[in-house]
């Protein structure tokens, strides 16, 4: 696999995110002979890309990589672009550069499940469509890997996710036409009609974007990588490194900091948890597989812990170190009562106190944000869902021992009890949030 990545030009979007950061670190540390690593990123505030690059690589995540590959900066080139703009808002020179890369790994997306549909179309579908159009003029491209989600088809009527493309309720091109023709308010009015079988705009947008990628399979090799619930690192470059507060990690933070007095989950619902470093390794292996096999059809790779499952309840009991934790309930109404009494009412009185002492109120706004987050993730923590993952299992079985050591992603080796018992310490160390157990 090292020989395969040697002298390759790779474009990564979303490289500043949780999975993107660990992917960049892994590529620069374990594949130092890549030719160039292009990172597409938006301008942030008044920082130019040179300043942003310096800040980015000061993260403790990159310390080991910099020690092993001190000349990494010669490989990295930042490209200023915006996935929400036509032609990604690229300069002509940057556009020409993208047309020369060998591999595109497209992680850039919004994962905010509370966003309205028009935001998700702009952030997830539009950017992917623009990037694909640019790549059509690239005669060197060997793989376009779109990073989706294992929950992209987690519709209310679906209980098993297979490794295949699921037809969207509206064609991607039609949805883009609707987006361009209607105002945001008009789109919001038809949102419920379009998404009636989907729990949120995030899963809906991922499903439509997958279908759009599939439409390009005759022009280039397309892969779709669907990771499960991404959590802290397992071992690389350091155990329990974490950057994101989304998904399962966010739920653990709320429970572990005693912010959330009660968490409603069904006892048997699987988390489909995947550590972020193993996820990056699996993504690298899938990209290699696409190019090696030169598949004419879009290849789907679901990456979840099916073969070493763990439930949401087990996660909570391991992280709280309490098998009989009173924080966890499978009674919906008792959960609502506890959160009202032990969170809403105290927050209300704290805001009343702040109001009468002429301070700006804030606690009910915090409560609303927490409530929105919990409502978004509760769909997944209470929905029985089987996710097939045969394609990645087959890749693992086909790898040499050297490659297995290079990109370990076999989830069967994880002792989930030990992993989730120690995960809160990673949250404390890397996110600075005090856990109270």
From TrEMBL:
Gene: LOC108565612
Alphabetical list of SUPFAM superfamilies matching this protein: NAD(P)-binding Rossmann-fold domains
Reactions accelerated catalytically: a long-chain fatty acyl-CoA + 2 NADPH + 2 H(+) = a long-chain primary fatty alcohol + 2 NADP(+) + CoA
Record-given protein name: Fatty acyl-CoA reductase
Role description: Catalyzes the reduction of fatty acyl-CoA to fatty alcohols.
Span of domain Fatty acyl-CoA reductase C-terminal: 342-431
Family: Belongs to the fatty acyl-CoA reductase family.
Transmembrane segments: 332-356
Domain Thioester reductase (TE) per the UniProt entry, residue ranges: 12-282
InterPro entries: FAR, FAR_C, FAR_NAD-bd, NAD(P)-bd_dom_sf
Record organism: Nicrophorus vespilloides (Boreal carrion beetle)
Broadest EC class assigned to this enzyme: oxidoreductase
